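Fill-in record for Acetolactate synthase.
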Amino acid sequence: MTERIEGHGGDLALAALRAHGVREMFTLSGGHVFPLYDAAHRAGFPLYDVRHEQSAVFAAEAVAKLQRRPGLAVLTAGPGVTNGVSGLTSAFFNASPVLVLGGRAPQFRWGSGSLQEMDHLPLVAPVTKHAETVFSADDIPRAVSAALTTALTPHRGPVFLDFPLEAVFSVGDADLPAVTPPAPIEPDPDEVAKAARLIAGASRPVVIAGSDVYAGDAVEALRAAAESLRVPVFTNGMGRGALPPEHPLAFAKARRVALKGADVVVVIGTPLDFRLSFGDFGDAQVVHVVDAPSQRAAHVQPAAAPAGDLRLILGAFADHAGDRADHADWIAELRTAEDAAKARDAEEMAAESDPIRPARIYGELRRALAPDAITIGDGGDFVSYAGRYLEPAQPGTWLDPGPYGCLGTGMGYAMGARVSHPDRQICVLMGDGAAGFSLMDVESLVRQKLPVVIVVGNNGIWGLEKHPMRAMYGYDVAADLQPGLRYDKVVEALGGAGETVEKAADLGPALGRAFDSGVPYLVNVLTDPADAYPRSSNLA
């Protein structure tokens, strides 16, 4: 039975949002969107506000990533929307189903110079799946419902709507559209069978699984396919933890050996971008498995490229009944390389060097983090170490900026993660450069009683720039920060707590205090500025 709804534009939008499972709003206060606040307040709908609009969008993206449902950010007109564009762009590259609702100057006097009058659509259209101005209150439920369906349809991604002032403040009525989940994309069975034959028949196959495996709820299907075909699995992005670290087919540290020796490389749910050598693996054949035809790589010619619902494709891999090569020797070779690398890493993570090396921080974090902790990377050089030394034990516990590489995600992601998982550890791993982008939003976390732990690797430089620039030119410029800066004092001034750590032996106790504090707590670790991640470069 169709439900008829009425009210001002905020009421009409909220009804459609709730029907699609949206459960919270992230925002920075602005008069153009007051009716959305009014609707939320009267309905008891959770509303979280921030100090910079980018944090609102990043918080919405964290919810979308972690919970596989739409995240919502509400931004006021003009600079409110433009401040959120980096967040929208990150969501676009990360295929995150985020809805941004923007205010807009009144249409009836458009062109007269109203406050914050700007046409947002030309700016946001290139980084959204859909962008639309909704000119009447009656049309708001239809537009919100359609936008959310688009956001959730693979390949997922952000959508944008803005409402002129008179539309969102006006009273209207409309039918609440029925919610129909997107239908799974059926892959071409011949292409799936071709891929399965290549994997099963390979002598040295390797799987690399990425974020879309988690987003598409295909973690169990990946495990079944890997176990059936006996293929070693590496992961990136939110694919991390898809196989627990103790799984006999889970690998993390032997990737270079694996890709150098593989004869078939199977990339699932992640693009063939700079993180994966642009899909160039020497003589190995490439199988690229994607969740929608639009995601097939155009710059390489894979040997097979199944496109569609990842659960269906991986399920078919698991059920493959054809001939299979024996991969036992290959798996054993990689396990030997993996174990050797783990032994080297263990030494580095236990180093008593002065000043502290980043590896030691991660050694202490491995002991402090619970298996279901959410770890968030916001930085360059310091966060590169996180990818090497931290091994998520469960899927859906890792958040990083993704291929767009935007700094400043930290506090927004932390807010979205805390809202999503109020009973888990939330730990932000932040470079001191990244701290300059969003640390003010600690105040938002404090005020709204959202405790998180922030670990800053403080080396006083832009590490990804300083070392490469010196190597290239013999000097560096614009790559130094204030050494020893007390970021913990910034957090204390904003109502949280923290401390600075200069000795490796003090790391463990400091992290213990941080996780027990119940408030936003920053552990400011002074690290060796000469220590650079060995493969760090933002020039790729």
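KEY FINDING: The longest strand covers residues 98-104.
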